[in-house]
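Hello again, I could really use a second opinion on something today. I've been staring at a protein lately and its backbone has me curious. Please have a think about how the structure follows from the sequence. I owe you a coffee for this, so here goes:
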Amino acid sequence: MCFAFDARPPELPPGIARIAGGAGAELLELESADGARFSASLAESPEPSGKAVVILPDVRGLYPFYVELAERFASAGHHAIAIDYFGRTAGLGPRGEDFDYWPEVQKTRPATVQLDTAAALAALRERTGAEAVSSVGFCFGGTQSLLAATNAELGLDGVIGFYGSLSPERWGDMSPIHRAVDMRGPVLGLYGGADEGIPPDQVEALDRNLTAAGVEHEIVTYPGAPHSFFDRRYDEHAEACADAWRRMLDFLG
C-alpha cells in the first residue's frame, strides 16, 4: 500500500518561492492513441518556468493527493498533469476511498501506461506550450516513471521515481534493474531506507546498472524513512520531504 486516501503532499520547503493566484487543477478527459479514454488533472502555473511535469500516481490512480500535488508544482512555477491509469478497465474518475484498485492495477501494462502518458504529455504541451517535461511517479507510478525513461518516443527530459518497486520477481524482464541499460537520463531515484518492500540490494543493483550503462542518474536513500514518506502528516520525516522537494525542483531546473 502506498499513501492513505486522506494523505496530502508536503508543503514546499522554506526558501522555495510560492506563486500566488493560480487556479485549482482542472479535471480533463483524454484519449490515448489506442482509443482508450482516461481522466487527468491539469494545474497550470500563473508564472511558468517553461518546465513541466507529468505525475504518475500510486496504485490508487488519480485521487486528491495527486490533484493537490499538481497544484503544488504549479505554485512552484511548473505546469503539471496527473493521470489516472484505469480508464480502460474501470471507466473515468474521480473515485472514492472504497475504490477496489488492486484488480485494476493487475490489468495495467507498462505499454498502456506509456500510451496514456504520451496523451497527457500532448495535452500538457498543447495547453501550456511547455518545452521541457519530466515525469515523477510514486510507488507503482515510481516504477512506471523509471520505465518511461526507456521510451524515447515520449520525449521526456528526465524521470523521477519515488520508491518505485524494482523487484525482478514482480516485474520480471520489465524490472527497472534489468531495463536500466535501455534508459535515457537523467534519472532521479528517491527511496526510503526503512522501506521493507524495496531492500537496499535492489536499490544498489539499480544504481550499479545505471552506472554501467552510462546513464546520468542520482539515487538517494533517506535513512529511517518508510515507504510513502512523502506525506505532510509524517512530521518525523519533514526533513526528508523538504530535501526531496528541493531535489525534484533542482532536477526540473
